[in-house]
Structures are given as C-alpha cells and as structure tokens.
Amino acid sequence: MLDIMTWADDLYPIVLKRFQDRLEKRTSLIKSTIGYEKLSTSNQYAEEGIGGLGLVPEYNGTTIQELNGKRGIKKIYTPAEHAAKTSIGYKYAKIDQSGEAKKAGNKMADALSITQIRDFYNLFARGFDANYAGADLVSLFSAAHPINNEAGADTYDNAGTLIFSVSAITTSQTRAQRFKTFDGQDFDCEFNLALISPELEPKAKEFWGKEAKLLPQSAENGANPISDFKYIVIKGFSAKQWAVADALLLQDYIKMVEITSPMVIPNKPDNPLIQEYIGYMDYIFGWSDARCIIGHNPA
Known about the structure:
By secondary structure, the protein is an alpha/beta fold. 29% of the residues lie in helices and 23% in strands.
C-alpha cells in the first residue's frame, strides 16, 4: 500500500513519463506541416512576408547602390496561456498506483495536445472566414491580400471555388506562379502539398495511390502531373473545402510559436488525500504571408 506521506511524490515520475510519451505522438502532425518557433528571450515573435530588397544592380567599381525595398506586412505572434488541472485520489491510487498515474498522464497529454491540434486545424478551416483576419487584415484565403504595406498596394488572390480534381490542382499551381513578392519580384514556388477534408480523402487516394504515376481521370491512363504530391487531412474543413500549398514555404510563413511547451506540473492542495496535476502551455498559430497556399471553397 502507498505511504500516505509520500504517495503523491511517488506517482509523479509515472505521470510525467506517460505524459511525455503520449504528447509527442499526438502533436507530430503540427511540426511536420508548418513552421515552429520556440521563444526563450521574449514573449513575442515578429516576422515579415515573402520578399526582399529587389534586384541587385551591377557594380561599376566605384558606387555601391543602396536598395530601398517595399515594406512587407509584419506579423506579431503573441502566445496565449492555457491551463487546466486533473486530480488523483488516494482512495484509488492505493489500489492501483501505476494505473491511476498512467491515466492521469494520458488524459492531460490528450487534453493539451487536442487543444493544439484543434487550433492547427482551425488555422486552415477558418481561412475562408473574414472574422479571422491576419496581419494584412484579411482572412488566410482571400481575394484582397495586399502585396505589401505601401499605400495603394496591388492585391493578390489566393481564394478559389474549384472542385477538387487534378486539373484544379494544376490550375492552382499555375496561378501561384503569377504571384509577386512584396518587393515586386516573381514568386518562386513549388506547390506540392494538398490539404483536404476527410470527405475528399477517397478521391485523394485515387490521385496518389499505388497507380499514382497514371492519371486517374484519363481513359488513356496518361501521366499524372501531380504524382509526387503529398496530402494531409484537415478535419475542420467542410466536405468540399481543400487547399494546395508549397510544403517548404508553409514551414517558413505559417507557424506555431511557443514559449512553454505542454507540461504537467504536480500540485499539492490542502487535502493530503488529493493530488492535483496542472497542465500548462502557451502558444499561438498564425501566418505572415499567404502566398504559400491557395484555398478552394466550392459551392
């Protein structure tokens, strides 16, 4: 039987190990899809969109020309705190110490990770909702993204209504190649990742299944121009919604910024027959540039 004086301390190593093992498995999707920044010296993170100082002229041997590029739109990430607690009673721990500790670790890891994953999905699922605007004051998928932060700037459009198909994907690829960076240069990209609703996954398997090198919708079994694509399921998307992105740029310009990674902390309340475990984290999701993705919301 557990010692009433030390039982709470004895449980924590078991709780912590189960929490850490479970958490890593549940949150791996996030860091494999978008960028990640861990803050250690500030509670904010700032980033500008895709662009630079423009083209560099030839050097004439005497004068080095100063470049004054257009101003990009600055995104400020400010992580928000999340906290909750769960409890273990001595009554149950004395019967099944390991079982109760493992359950507490699992449940807290699940609660924290599911919260982060929900926000990851919502980052894209709310992309068509004007109520969730980015630093450029429009939603992630919008026809009115300003190219830069200058007065009267031109706009670009990364929102569409095409039904998910091979031709819709290649049309989106071509469309992205016509985007301009905030300093007016050609946008260099390789759209090679599809983000789809659960209802579209059977169709995605046709495009990227065992016969992926052949075009599923072609009677002649022609070459599939998107055979090298990968896809992920976004559970917040409605049935017909989908998007296509540059997987590398997605890591650079759509991010999760975190100060404190999910953790579980033991806390002893006044009652010696109760042990509390507090789950804590602070993070935020966002984007500094939407050129890296095009979203479609068919009627």
